[in-house]
Amino acid sequence: MAVLTIHNLSTAGRGRSAAAPRRFSLSRFGGRWLSPVALLLLWEAGSRIGLIPERTLAAPSAVLGTLFEMVLSGELPSNLLVSFARVAAGLLIGVGLGLALGLVAGLSRAGEMAVDPLMQIKRTIPALALTPLFIVWFGIGETPKVALIAFATIFPVYLNLYSGIRSVDLRLLDAAKSFGLSRWEQIWHVVLPSALPSLLVGLRYALSVSILVLVVAEQINASAGLGYLINNARDFMRTDIIVVCLMVYAILGLGADWLVRTVEARALIWRPSIVEQ
């Protein structure tokens, strides 16, 4: 009888320990959403009772209503396309230059001596501090907006690619040489694949920076785009429109990060993961 009791107690203990991770994961999942939902409820309640004036901050319900109106009228999609085109053009230039400079500095000692000091100087200059100078050089059209985004996104790509190239395991290069691979074959089959994880990290950072710079760039006499909507909303004290545009900026940033993560998951499928699923 005692043996059966001990067996039952041990079985029950194992059952509780086996069920514990599930309860923990469920509570953890719920806990992640608890504080944002509570914040929204407090925000809505404060707006309903007049504690938060509409001119100061519109209620979440008003923001959602404005979002649907702007989407149905086509105002938000058309301006979003303009902002997306600016980011795409700036990223195309900035990432392209970052790749080229990273390859030159990473693969050549002479290239490092020529490029890296200039890039370190560039790193200490805030991109947004160049706004007045870019306006003088390029006017107030689309060029300074694209140029600011391009200038801000060069360094993250350059630095991570340069670091990835210089961090390649020398034993892999020795093995490639022993198989008779030429210099360019070593770069293509060994160096670049080894530097790819670092490059993707730099690309993720560059995409995030491009969204941040876009917010400021679109304040330069914009006639369309999310920044144009924010400026108009500020003039008419439409905090609901301002919040809608800020939400779109946040979604753009999250979407860009998700895109690079997806590419990373497919391109680096060969890399072992140290994080348990």
TrEMBL record:
The keyword Transmembrane is annotated on this UniProt entry: yes
Its membrane topology: Multi-pass membrane protein
Domain ABC transmembrane type-1: 76-260
Keywords for this protein: Cell membrane, Membrane, Transmembrane, Transmembrane helix, Transport
Keyword DNA repair: no
Localization terms from the record: Cell membrane
UniProt-listed SUPFAM superfamilies: MetI-like
Main location class: membrane
Signal peptide: none
Pfam families: BPD_transp_1
Membrane-spanning parts: 80-104, 124-140, 146-165, 209-229, 241-260
Coiled-coil zones: none
Domain of life: Bacteria
Family, per entry: Belongs to the binding-protein-dependent transport system permease family.
PANTHER family: ALIPHATIC SULFONATES TRANSPORT PERMEASE PROTEIN SSUC-RELATED, ALKANE SULFONATE ABC TRANSPORTER-RELATED, MEMBRANE SUBUNIT
Name listed for the protein in its UniProt record: ABC transporter permease
Organism: Sphingobium rhizovicinum
